[in-house]
Each structure stands twice: as structure tokens, then as C-alpha cells.
Amino acid sequence: MFDIQTQLFEARDIRFGPIDHDLHPEIESKWTHDSEFMRLMELKPARPLTPAMVRKEYESIEKQMDEDKNIIYFTVRARPDDRLIGKAVIEWIDWSNGNGWLRIGIGAPQDRRKGYGTQVLGLLLRYAFAEINLYRVTALVPEYNQGARRLFEKFGFVEEVRRRKALNRDGEFWDLISYGLLVSEWQPSVDRG
Predict the structure, then answer these.
(1) Count of domains forming the chain
(2) How does pLDDT run across 63-83, given as a tens digit for each residue?
(3) E strand or H helix that includes residue 2
């Protein structure tokens, strides 16, 4: 499936890495003040966070990773300068049934729409299916997030559930779409797209 030279945590323009508790809280705090990022990334109501609040969230995530083992959290960094540009998460992992839920986000507006999301999703799927042996992954996407919908469909995700008018945003109710992908449907060749 992959040759020995295939990098697990690197793609053409991005790489996965761990949380940096000194540098990342300040950066991610800025993302939480960006209503567009929050609208696209979060299903819960947007809440701007201070760097100290982000640091506490990181501590909680790392505790879950250590104790519960039901979340895997990667920072996404630009390869040329190693700066934080996003996050990639596999959460609500049900190890006995091989299921996990995916979330990805590119933080700053100037880093969006450059193809990073495609590279992030490719790496995340390769990790989910080829490294930790999940059987299926799911992504929840608001109806209004056309970019995410196109991205997941590009990778072969299938719309499985549509919760009608389940999300109230911008004074309007939107459908919440659950996309799923099975390991047997995964096409690693799409990862390099």
C-alpha cells in the first residue's frame, strides 16, 4: 500500500506535530476570536478563549489521550517554517468497534483554501486506517460548510445521516450531515491530491 519511504506525519506542505504549550495557546486563542473559523470548525456555540483557557483545553486533551485513549490530537504545521496552521483530531474513538470521529481545521484566514485541508485529511485517514486500524470514520459537517462537504466527498465519504434543521446559525436553521467512510472504501491514492 505504501513504500518504506512514505512519511507518516508529513505531506507536501504540512506536517503533524505535538502541542507546544508555550507557543500554540496564543495562536489558537486568535482563531477562537475569528467567527468564520469558529463557524466552520465548531458545532457548539462560539466562545472566544484567552491563551490561558486554550492552555487548559490542551491539558484536558492530553489527559484524555493519556488516560482514556479515546482522542488523538495533532497540531498541523506548515513545513517551510513549522508555524502552527491548524489541527487534526480523531475523537470519540470506540476501539472495540474500530470507529472514530474526525475534525480538522485550518486556523488563520490566509492559510485557508491553499490545499492544506486535502493534505491534512489524507494524513489523518492514513493514520486512522493504516496505523491504528480503525474500521470506519465519521465526520459531522454543517450544511452551510460547502468546502468541508466537497473535501470529504472527494475522499469518498458518503452521506449517512442528515439531521434536518439541527443547527441554529446566523439566524437560520441548518441541516447537520454525518459523513462516513469505511476502510474498504478508502483510496490512499486520493491522499496525495
Answers:
(1) 1
(2) 998 888 899 999 999 998 999
(3) none
